[in-house]
Known about the structure:
The chain is built from 10 helices and 14 strands.
Amino acid sequence: MNPSISLQNGELVTILIEKKEAPFISLRWVLLITYVIVGIIPLLLMANTILHSIEEYFIEERKKELLSEANVIAGQLASYDFFVNETNQEALQEMILTTSQDEDFRVLILDSAARVVYDTGYEEVGKTYLLPEVLEALENKDIAKEQRDGTVYAAASIVGSGSQHDGVVLIADSLQDVSDTVGNIAGKAYFLLATLLVIVIIVMIVTSQLFTEPLKRMIQVIQKMAEGHLEQRIVVKNRTHNEIVDLALSCNHMADQLEKVESSRQQFVSNVSHELKTPLSSIKVLSESILLQEDVPKEMYVEFLHDINSEIDRMSAIINDLLTLVKLDQKEIPLNFAESDLNHMMEGIIKRLTPLADVKQIQMHYTKEKDVLAVVDEMKLTLAISNLVDNAVKYTPEGGSVQVTLDADHQNAFITVTDTGIGIPEEEVNRIFERFYRVDKTRDRETGGTGLGLSITYATVMMHNGSIKVNSKENEGTTMQVRIPLRQTHTAV
Ligand code: ADP
């Protein structure tokens, strides 16, 4: 339903328009119709053509046969002077009658005026037969022709001794037996085709079932997923692979990913709530303890307000980091790529963070291996690298050292931050880029970290199409190396 809202006489009217859905045509029918068109129709056409050719062949053979019979008879009549010698006539007629009965056709003898003088059917004697075949034979062109009524006429001229045409032998024969034979073959052929059609339909129904059944099951599962049941999976039993199995596996993989996204979203929301709740609870406890006490000394006020202030600072730091992350997540906001002097950027970062290192008597060293110009979003990358250097200082005990290096090859810039700090346990290294993830949950309240710094760094580096490598050993130190391509092939990320 597609609601359309309009104003009628000042009243708001919502009209629900039925959305026209495209008609559903099952794949099964498409396959079946295709098979019938591609498989059966050409066979039918071929069978028809073959049957037609067979019929023509039979008819042609029959014509030749009859013509040769007519010629034999005509030859005999000529040699025994049928029209002149009456004594021979009876014997010749007897012979012709026997042939006609044996061969089951009718023989007529016509004189040169096309008058029937003898007919094995006895019906037409005395009649004049001005048939085209007779006329042609009288002109010495022997001919056999098929008639509309399903008979064949074969006419042969009787040439007398003086090479003049004495008459014509006309044989008339029915083609019923040819039609019967061809009809018989056609019947068998069509029966075969009908059987084939039934087999094709059965095979199609079975094979299309094989295709459409898993697809139907997949659609049901996907529809359930769309309703929010992300735990649904398509059961794949096949031991072999095909496109449908791959599709099902891809759907399951997509569902896994969706579930992960959903659970990390829930985790994120619960982390944010938890992170903000802790300073809020402290503020509540601090303020209540002042409110509930009478005659609170001024110094206590100042101290408690100082604590409240630092909790507010902490909340504000968390919210700022969250906002930065949200902005990085909105990929439609493009990075501000411009060619930057990375050495200049690094010097700025080191200058800002050295006082922090000094407080802990940490030696901060910066080495520039070469001048590096790279196309980056300098502001965002500065924040990302500052987080790394800041962490190196935070997680290195007093008296330690932090070494920062800038280097490049012809494709990438490399920024390496090495500290002699507490290190990260091996099993935790993969998780430090997760939002709010901290190795030591209690320590961070002292260090003031939000658990979001490395997430910001990671997102920024990814948007620059770079990568981060971590090498760390507990109680020895950590090395983080950022690789950033010098040029961005597609600037809008
Ligand atoms: P935080 O604000 O807590 O520093 P980060 O996202 O920057 O959050 O870092 C995540 C966690 O990774 C930190 O809590 C810390 O446990 C660990 N970590 C990061 N950098 C270092 C480092 N240089 N040495 C040791 N641990 C580190």
